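Posting this for the archive.
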Amino acid sequence: MIKKEMIAMLLAGGQGSRLGVLTAKVAKPAVAFGGKYRIIDFPLSNCINSGIDTVGVLTQYQPLRLNTHIGIGIPWDLDRNVGGVTVLPPYEKSSNSEWYTGTANAIYQNIDYIDVYNPDYVLILSGDHIYKMDYEVMLEFHKANNADLTIAAMPVPIEEASRFGIVITDENSRITEFEEKPANPRSNLASMGIYIFSWPVLKEALMKLSAEPGCDFGKHIIPYCHAKNDRIFAYEYNGYWKDVGTLGSYWEANMELIDIIPVFNLYEEYWRIYTKCDTLPPQYLAESSRIERCIIGEGADIYGEVHNSVIGPNVTIEQGAVVRDSIVMQGSVIRAGASLSKTIIAENVTIGERAELGVGEYAPSKLDPKVYAFDLVTVGENSVIPPDVKIGKNTAISGVTVPEDYHDGKLESGDYIIKAGGSR
């Protein structure tokens, strides 16, 4: 029988609805990040850097690009005969087929996969956070405390605490109380959604709560373990960690990469972030180009001006175009004379000549004020913006648009255009 001390289960099925048009056709963990990576590269790289060589990736929503990206795990050295990376979508069973209905339900449906490795410990990870963490150190903490469950937690500003699961600990870091998204938080120590369970404890909880609709770690499993008086500890983490679940935090995390001394360093030798790399030609910067504080992906052709931006691979920015404080993902084309300010352009988008994106004053969103609450222009993948239009702030565009879609050549701040084939 195979025996692994600890295996990781990486939850990557989320739709990421708060990223709006960016995740209309792609799972959030597969969204591009930092001009080269996809969000899921960070927890996967953390696993291999921490010596964990067996990772189950649980997919569900729009999994195609994620599956293609992960493949058999070669970039992360996870192509193993025993262990390695395994993509675990929901599957047809003889009696019925079930979608994953919650984070814990997804693990419950894969108990057989975990049992193959007979692990002492199971590490539960989320596929949509940007951070570097040595899970080996967290495991040592778990063992030293003889814990049944260890929750990675970090201090957050108290005004943001109600967005998280909040833990209250005693002087030995043992968790005395756990509240999921409390209205009036009594602590600012937030769960990061990273858990180490002793496998027998987790298995028993999953079996016991298997009938619970939408069975979830924060709402069901942790309160159950707590009520049973299991030994639950908080492992405090003080490094960089970003939940890039909103357009604002996603834009901000990308912009932080280009600070003079980045808060989050992609260039460290000893803790590399691995990704699937296509064979691309080098970037080309023409004589007419002007570039200031940017990350520019391979295969990019730059003829215009780019300031304080993250540019993905195979992007073309034509002469006279100006890109500021923006993210442009791979394969997109910014035509001559176009200007972008605080704009997120998804993959394979074309911006027409002299189009202006990010003009005027902020206005609240008419599409979805919960999602579009930042002064960003967000353009979904494969979209086309015609020449000479002006697009305001806090706007969303998805699909192939034509001049007639723009009233007097304008899309006012807070407005949106979602064409057939495009999506919210």
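The chain is about 15% helix and 30% strand. Residues 217-227 form the longest helix (11 residues).
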